[in-house]
Amino acid sequence: MISNKQTTRICLWSGPRNISTALMYSFAQRSDCKVFDEPFYAHYLSKSDARHYHPGAEEVIATMENDGEKVVQDLILGSTDAPVLFFKQMTHHLIDLDWRFMAQTINIILTRDPLEMLPSYAKQVQQPTLHDVGYAMHLKLLDYLQELGQTPPILDSKQTLLNPRAVLRQLCEKIGIPFEEVMLRWPAGARPEDGSWQKYWYDVVHRSTGFQPYWRKEGEFPVGLRPLLTQCQPYYEKLAALAIQA
């Protein structure tokens, strides 16, 4: 068993409809890493009205730990035999939690242009709010981590997809682990770590065998999402300016 001080514990703080699952699959290919899929999801659903509109919410609540503080102590900071732990997280799940555990984790922020993200998310969650999509919480999290003395690496989905090798190599250097070429490819299909919600959200990543080339989707942006886009854009622009470049 590896002691807590010898284990690299990585939290990837993302918003929905990003490339967070692809990054989880990427890290799962490493020779030294165990991955975990949104361990705070049931905590979030049990403490918010999202349980009424997230697909599969009741199954998540019934099959996962609902107490976020137990998740922190037993899983995120718990004993492990793996040199590296990777936790795919959603920033908007950080409600009614003591954030101080982040002083013991390496934290990465992942963002995506809301012009591309919002139409994708609205296919599953109608009339999303600013809290649902996590942009404001990303800035709050960044401020908190900086108060802890951390400079969290920031990933932008577009930059990552433009050159996965270059961005992941820079990321690994920043977080103090060696880059492994195997992080760029994975077998098609589901992984055992996938959450129960995979049947609603993971169809694209299950068909993939690596990071897909970036392409901007064509089509008119939905009029009903324009007010939310206006809210999200300033937060995204602040993060994008700090992101690792391809």
From TrEMBL:
Keywords from the named record: Aminotransferase, Transferase
UniProt GO MF annotations: transaminase activity
InterPro entries reported for this sequence: Class-IV_PLP-Dep_Aminotrnsfr (IPR050571), P-loop_NTPase (IPR027417)
SUPFAM superfamilies (alphabetical): P-loop containing nucleoside triphosphate hydrolases (SSF52540)
Gene Ontology biological process: carboxylic acid metabolic process
Classification via Gene3D superfamilies: P-loop containing nucleotide triphosphate hydrolases
Name of a matching Pfam family: Sulfotransfer_5
UniProt KW ATP-binding keyword: no
UniProt cross-references to PANTHER family, sorted A to Z: AMINO-ACID AMINOTRANSFERASE, AMINODEOXYCHORISMATE LYASE
Protein family: Belongs to the class-IV pyridoxal-phosphate-dependent aminotransferase family.
Protein name, as recorded: Branched-chain-amino-acid aminotransferase-like protein 2
